[in-house]
Amino acid sequence: MKSFKQEKIFYSISEVANMFDVNESSLRYWEKEFPSINPAKSAKGTRQYRKEDIEAIRLVYHLVKDKGMTIKGTKRKLKENKEDAVRNEDIIFRLKNVRDELVALKDEFDEMEKQMPAPLPD
User: Fold this and answer.
1) Rounded distance, CA 73 to CA 102, Å?
2) 3-class SS at 47?
3) How many C-alpha atoms does 1 have within 13 Å on its Cβ side?
4) Contact in structure between 22 and 58 (CB atoms under 8 Å)
């Protein structure tokens, strides 16, 4: 799953599929299986995903893709202890974002170091 910053109110199905690196058909399937994923639809039937939908997808993605749970197991987990699943996924999501920021900083420092002149010999 790619990290993202919430910038828009609505996202298209292709944008959300790209965020999670999944097929659009997976999102449509998860929408049928998990009532918490309920994007608005335009008059033409185009899905418009909101922040709440993306958070629900993020949780399902974590359980299915990261944890390797089945759809049935994911449904059971969310029914039995959704708060725990949400808390754990949120911690992991935040840690991944911190890691991404640290890697970006390291890359910037490495680039700055390359541009610095060589030290003078003693």
Assistant:
1) 34
2) strand
3) 25
4) no
Pairing, β 40-41 against β 47-48: antiparallel
pLDDT band at 50 (very low <50, low <70, confident <90, very high): very high
Q: What is the pTM assigned to this prediction?
A: 0.70
pLDDT confidence bin for 1, thresholds 50/70/90: low
SS3 48: strand
Encoded tokens for 11: 């996202």
In DSSP terms, 40 is beta-bridged to 48
11: closest CA among 35, 40, 31, 44? 40
Q: CA triplet 35, 22, 56: central angle to 5 degrees?
A: 30
* pLDDT at residue 6 tops 60: no
Beta bridge partners of 11: 49
Q: What's the number of CA atoms in the CB half-sphere (13 Å) around residue 48?
A: 9
Domain ranges for the chain: 13-115
For the domain covering 13-115, report its CATH number: 1.10.1660
